[in-house]
Amino acid sequence: MSFESENKNVEKIIVSNKTYYLVGTSHISENSVKLVKEVIERVQPDTVSIELDKKRYEKYTNSNQWGNTDIIKIIKEKKLVVLISNIVYSAYQKKLANTKGTTQAGELIQAIKSAKEIGANIQLIDRDIQVTFKRMWRHLSFLEKPKLFMTFFTEFDDIEQDKLEEYLESDSFDKVFISLSKKYPSLYQDMITDRDKYMSTKLKNNSSQVNVVVVGKAHMKGIKEKLEKRTEFSLDNLNEIPPKN
């Protein structure tokens, strides 16, 4: 029996004689951790591609990274907004993880571990988190910024704790991103659409024949479409920082 028939969060795609297993995950779900482990062990891929950039990879493989953060250096380099955005987003994910008693980004950590165990290459396919947050921040209006931060911390408040995992695995979770695209179109472009373009291009540039791709559920549809259409995008353009508004 194929993965596709066993689990709706796994998609098998064959493009230009390359096989991709897209594994759509929730960053706070224990089920996602188990699924990632199972897929990698069963497929035995050449490469495991993960929704991480170098900085976040180091964060998850080096527990002292935040303790080594030089705040003065960050201020001098004008990266304070990026740090604050990262902290807020991480706090939001940690809040959800604590609600379920799970590990934040546990499935990404599992992907790294499983790849190393089978001797697969690890490919980091996501755009630099600093670029993503800078683009997001520059595109948001003055009034949208505080409104967005409040949304992060109230979106799931009315959902019972024991129902949260079920909600994250259901079609209702997709509606959150549809709502997000309507409320904050520029945010959706920066956080979802542009990263889909970036990650699909990185995948196409990888020569591995069999690749397990571990990404958040919100990215599955976009990455799949772009792989199947064989569309390539300029990574330089996707890394550009817009001027201050």
Automatic annotation (TrEMBL):
It comes from the Bacteria. Pfam families: TraB_PrgY_gumN (PF01963). This is TraB family protein.
